[in-house]
Design goal:
- This protein has 219 residues and is an alpha+beta fold.
- The protein folds into 2 domains: 7-182, Pnp Oxidase, Chain A (Roll), CATH 2.30.110.10; 186-219, no CATH class.
- It is built from 6 helices and 11 strands.
- The strands form 2 sheets. Strands 1, 2, 3, 6, 7, 10 and 11 form a 7-stranded antiparallel sheet that branches.
């Protein structure tokens, strides 16, 4: 475990599960699909799930130009979290039930990307992070670009937290009759199918079919 980049990213509870090195943080982010983004609005805190992309030590978020959360977050500190649940940890007492997980918390100032060319570049990053289909689809128009808001946030203030392994029970409970163990959790891509109104002539892109049976980590 390296040192945290700032006091507010230091793990306090379960600090032994923390990691601050970029390789661990990037690996967790790159394996995810959804980020939960939190901002402080005039109506109070707001958290929404969003697709995202990463390039180097910068994270990108996008939404409609009128998106309230992103518009509010522009120029202010926001919080972004990405979490993978790898298993349910069932202890001998519910008090010690837990989950095996990998998570990242990012804090920092969000900045709106203004230039249309830079916006297109980051939108491609976000799209292809989920599944690479930017070059297989209708090109994005100027109207599409104008309707979209993209924020960038540096990954300089980020921390990871990881739990793996068996339940941690009281010594007296370990000798008891109660079952304890782990129930693995997996998310997999199913077989793709065409939209009901699809009448085009282009075949399904190979990268869609290649996802079948894979977990997000295996993309």
């Amino acid at each position: 475990m390296t040192e945290p980049p700032s006091p507010r990213t230091r793990l306090r509870r379960g600090a032994e599960r923390g990691a601050y090195d970029q390789s661990t943080i990037f690996e967790i982010l790159d394996a995810g699909l959804i980020a939960h983004v939190g901002v402080q609005t005039d109506d109070g805190p707001l958290v929404l799930p969003m697709a995202y992309g990463r390039d180097g030590d910068t994270l990108y978020l996008h939404g409609a130009a009128a998106n309230h959360l992103l518009g509010t977050g522009n120029g202010h500190d926001i919080c972004v979290t990405v979490t993978h649940v790898d298993g349910l940890v069932m202890a001998r007492t519910p008090f010690h039930n837990s989950m095996n997980y990998r998570s990242v918390v990012v804090r920092g100032k969000a900045t709106k990307i203004e230039g249309p060319d830079q916006k297109l570049r980051t939108l491609k990053l976000i799209t292809d992070h989920v599944v690479a289909n930017w070059d297989e689809s209708r090109p994005v128009s100027d109207v599409d670009n104008k309707k979209t808001l993209v924020l960038e946030i540096p990954l300089t203030e980020a921390s990871a937290k990881i739990r793996a392994g068996d339940p941690v029970d009281e010594d007296d409970d370990v000798a008891g009759p109660w079952w304890a163990g782990v129930i693995p959790v997996e998310t997999r891509f199913g077989a793709p199918y065409a939209a009901a109104d699809f009448t085009g002539s282009n075949p399904m892109p190979d990268q869609y079919r290649a996802l079948t049976g894979k977990t997000p980590d295996e993309r």
